[in-house]
Amino acid sequence: MKIEFVIDDSIHYPLNYSNLARIVDCIEDNVEQQDLFHVLAQSEFTRIRECIAGMDCLHEETVHLLAHDPQIEVLRRIISSDSGKKYLTTETLLQLVEQGDYEVMDTLSSRLEEYQLCNIEQVFQKMIEHPDPAVRYKLATNRDIPAKLRQKLAKAPDPLLAKLAQKNLK
């Protein structure tokens, strides 16, 4: 990717990836920038992809590209963005859950109902299998998750988990 700052088609100043990352941080997050964001989401420089993943006005294709990024920070940011909540599918969320990153799980646990293309029941079922009990505790306290799902946790052998889930069923 060739990057340069151009003024009046007469001054061309080459930029490195670090300079570009600083500029990306300043770009207004709106639909007019979606094509630019898509190109930048393909950058080799992780920091630039992280910046783009945190944007709320991304094309669906850009969201799916970033949701399969090898860098965990990019994944953490895309699941927190409005674009991620709008376009991430059940299948993609299940893949992210499978990776088992605690921060990803924490975000999903508290916001699962916000993902528009998500089958909450499928993702919830996968999340309650996570080895870290803190993930299940967070799910048990999320009042926006349907009560029938939280009832499963209310019957858990873990006394704290059962107590949290029962408390939030009322």
Please tell me about this protein's structure.
- This protein has 12 helices and 2 strands.
- The protein has a two-stranded antiparallel ribbon with strand order 1-2.
- The mean pLDDT is 93.
- The relative contact order is 0.08.
- It has helices at residues 17-24, 34-40, 46-53, 60-66, 72-80, 82-87, 90-99, 102-111, 120-127, 133-141, 147-154, 159-169, and strands at 4-7, 11-14.
- A hairpin with a 3-residue loop joins β1 (4-7) and β2 (11-14).
- The protein is mainly alpha-helical.
Total helical segments: 12
- Helix-residue proportion: 55-70%
Specify Rg, calculated over alpha carbons.
19 Å
Question: What is the β-strand count?
Answer: 2
